[in-house]
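Re: the pair you flagged

First of the two:
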Amino acid sequence: QLQASGGGLVQPGGSLTLSCAVSEPLNYNAIGWFRQAPGKEREGLSCISRDGRKIMYEGSVKGRFTVSRDTDKKTVYLQMHNLKVEDTAIYYCARRTAGGSTFCSTRAHMFVEWGQGTQVTVSS
């Protein structure tokens, strides 16, 4: 199981950190971050591999979002800076246990288990 949390209301230019708590050790799980805005398709944002050595970001968030993890807490974080109104969405984390230790993808269909999302609203 996994659960995303940390969403909320923030002004444009502000920051938020999302957490994804995972029930299994992180070295068993590649974790992806995704979001879905109203009326839009789910969008892949970032991923971190099982061994933590491979990290990817999609262009829309590159340079503004940072993914990290705490293996002791079995938690993956998504630090979001310089938030924009268009970042408003429900944010999800997802996990995949299959594949090599460096597997990392932002394609939603590659992930088999999804947590409940957390709402991020960027508004003045």
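Second of the two:
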Amino acid sequence: VQLQASGGGLVQAGGSLRLSCAASGRTFSRYGMGWFRQAPGKERAFVAAITWSGGTSIYADSVEGRFTISRDNAKNTIYLQMNSLKPEDTAVYYCAANPSSGSIVSRAPVFYTHWGQGTLVTVSS
């Protein structure tokens, strides 16, 4: 399984960005997927996760109501729509996959067995 995150960039506070994560693998529709982020000098933190069907999603409290995770299994891609961005959202964003437990959503990094390379999001004040 290979994951390729994209869509990061520089945006002003209050703006929006949409991140994408394209995955390889013929059974992508069975993968549990998540987004994490790592700000400078901080540990990697959970952002959002979604089940294989897209029927269940969970969010970190800090992004609830502003970010939306979704997936298109026909395109082997998940998305993270980020609205009302704040300077504290500045981080490298990583997508992650668990090909074996698609019906579970998890906030724990150890749940995910495959990680993308990250895409940088910078929010200016």
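The chain has a mean pLDDT of 95.

-B.
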